[in-house]
Amino acid sequence: MYTIDTVKMDFHFFTDISEAKLKQQKSIHLDKEKIRDTVLVSQDKLLMSTYQKKLILVDSGSGQVLSKIALQDTPRLMCMAEPHLAATTLANKTIQFTQVNANKLMGYTTLNVDVNVYGIATHKNNLVMSYYPPGVKIISRAGKIIHTLDNTTARRVVFKYPRRIAITSDDSIYVTDIGTNKITRLDSNLAILQTFSGAMLNCPHGLLTLNRDQLLLCSMINNRILLLRPSTSSMTVILEKQHGIERPQSVCFCKEQKKLYVSSDSDGRVLVYQML
User: Fold this and answer.
1) Contact predicate 204/223, CB 8 Å
2) Looking at residues 159-185, what average pLDDT do you find?
3) SS3 state at 241
4) DSSP symbol at 64
5) Which one of 20, 102, 235, 237 has the fewest beta carbons within 10 angstroms of its own beta carbon?
6) What CA–CA distance (Å, rounded) separates 259 from 62?
7) Is residue 222 part of a domain?
């Protein structure tokens, strides 16, 4: 269950800011490209995957495309595995690792995973991934399975269509599921700690860690960006349709520039919001 707080933005990692308004800035457009996923590379660069099987590095201030590289298949989701290494899950049951050097995308390597992999994150030099048939695995960078949680090992239905993964500083692993409309919190051994559900979580998709007790998430069908506080199971509406949000699927936040980036399932735009 959840409660709805008053609509505000409360980031405790800013010692001097407890409330802030968000002002919409000029959007970032990719010509003739439909965005699949977006991650923050640095305070002035975003990396986007597209349904046209590309990775595109963009200057987040000007919107200028800096570099492009081909993907080996249709992308699903991605993360920054290291500061200069992007990991992208692909429809052909592989993970593509791409070097992000300064303003250029360079060579890549691939890892076969033998499952339909979707979400991906890194934890202590390992990879955490969601997949279908529904489950979550922790694997080594070489592909060795370390832990698995699925409906068989749990002996009940935990997942239907698990998607995004986010990890907090206390080693909690959060997984969105667009089939159950829930977010599941796991420990580093994939034991279930907590679940979050309710009408606000209608197709929960994009998920981003701000700190150990604050996560941003996209409620795609509700056209909302929410702030989840696990300690109280509370959710705060940050942005919604009246602010331009439509079918959000990924969210990024740059704390240095105090900017929020939201990409949509519907077009090739990334919406930009400045925190005042």
Assistant:
1) no
2) 96
3) helix
4) -
5) 102
6) 14
7) yes
Q: What is the pLDDT of residues 14-46, one digit of tens each?
A: 433 335 688 999 999 988 889 999 999 999 999
Number of domains present in the structure of the chain:
1
Position 49 in a domain = no
Residue 237 tokens, joined: 């509406």
> What band does 148 get if pLDDT is binned at 50, 70 and 90?
very high
Question: In a 10 Å sphere around its CB, with 0-12 CB exposed, 13-18 middle and 19+ buried, how is residue 120 labelled?
Answer: buried
* φ, ψ of residue 153 in degrees (nearest 5): -70, -30
Assess contact for 116 and 150: CB atoms under 8 A.
no
- 20: containing domain: 1-30+211-276
Domain for residue 130, yes or no? no
Tokens coding 70: 């081909």
Task: Please state the pTM of the whole predicted model.
Answer: 0.91
The whole-angstrom separation of Cα 99 and Cα 87 is 9
Quote the CA–CA distance of 164 and 236 in Å, as a whole number.
Answer: 19
Task: For residue 258, tell me if it sits in a domain.
Answer: yes
Specify the pLDDT at position 20. 66
Q: What residue has token string 């949680």? A: 149
